[in-house]
Amino acid sequence: MRRNKSLSKSNGTDRLFDWFIYIYLILISIVTLYPFLNVLAISFNESIDTVRGGIHIWPRSFTLDNYVEIFKYDNLITGFINSTTRTIIGTILGVISSAMVAYTLSRADFQGRKLFSTIIVLTMYFSGGLIPGYMLIRDLGLINSYMVYILPGLVNAFNIIIVRSFIDGIPYALQESAKIDGANDFMIFWKIIMPLCKPVLATIALFVAVMHWNSWFDTYLYNSMNENLTTLQYELMKILQNTSVGSTDPNAMKGMTADQLKTFVSPESIKMAISVVTIVPILVVYPFVQKYFVQGMTLGAVKS
Questions:
Q1: Which pLDDT does position 255 carry in this prediction?
Q2: What is the model's pLDDT at position 85?
Q3: Residue 119 CB: number of other CB atoms within 10 A?
Q4: What percent of the chain has pLDDT over 70?
Q5: Which of 27, 60, 24, 22 minimizes the C-alpha distance to 41?
């Protein structure tokens, strides 16, 4: 009897704990999703109605005018093409370059392994600054050049450390057996290391892709005078800064005519629509690399 009572009490405690976990996770989900749903709702809501406020997770007056207004701006298509191509090219080359450096640093027979690893880590804490960086880009002839989007971010110290830690967890006997079979270093890297590093490579690929997709400051510094080299984020930033079609104060709308009210687009609506345009491509890509992302961040982090 006592044993049955203790089991019943234990089961009741477990169920209570499970309910607590469920409620906690539901609250976390609501807190996490609400900001995005609110942005989405405002972006699809009429600007005049948005100024009134009170929009939460569902648009009160649905419209696509906010997105239509964004795509009226010049150079947006050119910026989208440039951002897409730089993201694809920069991600592929960045992942391969970081993996090659990480493989070299992981080799036990590399004499300068510790020295170069220390130098690479130091670059994560210290940099030359904005002005020396600009002077370097200028002296390399990369101003008003598409390659300024690719070359400066080709190798990232943080990504190298992550990949090197992952490679250190791969048994070195695989490389030794491949050497016995006559494989050279490049074949070992391409045929053995790269396939085994898919999780961590997908992880840093997501990092690099997000960096390229969200980047606009390099366009502002180096290519702002060339409209053919503009990027989507830079164009959206200009739209956000130049939007002065109305005030978020409802009283400011009282003096508007009927025609002005029809074309009224609030800065808040533009801001939310821009946020959605920026986020959606990353949301589309992330589910395909999620399993590799989680595995890549955990494997290699703990060594036996």
A1: 53
A2: 94
A3: 11
A4: 83
A5: 60
Q: Residue 81 belongs to what domain range?
A: 76-229
Domain-ending residue, one of 229, 252, 274:
229
* Same domain, yes or no: 113 and 194: yes
CA distance 239 to 272: 12
Can you spell out the DSSP letters for 196-217? HTHHHHHHHHHHHHHHHHH--H
Other C-beta atoms lying within 10 Å of the C-beta of residue 43: 24
Domain boundary among 203, 229, 255: 229
Q: Is the pLDDT of residue 150 over 60?
A: yes
Residues 60 and 188 in one domain: no
Cα–Cα distance, 238 to 225 (Å, whole number): 14
- Number of structural domains the chain divides into: 2
Say if 238 falls within a structural domain: no
From the CB of residue 149, how many other CB atoms can be counted at a distance below 10 Å?
24
pTM: 0.76
How would residue 222 be classed by pLDDT, with cut points 50, 70 and 90?
very high
Count Cβ neighbours within 10 Å for each residue of 86-104 and write b for 16 or more, e otherwise. bbeebbebbbebbbbbbbb
Per-residue model confidence as pLDDT tens digits over 17-46:
888 898 998 999 888 888 888 888 888 888
CATH of the domain at 93: 1.10.3720.10
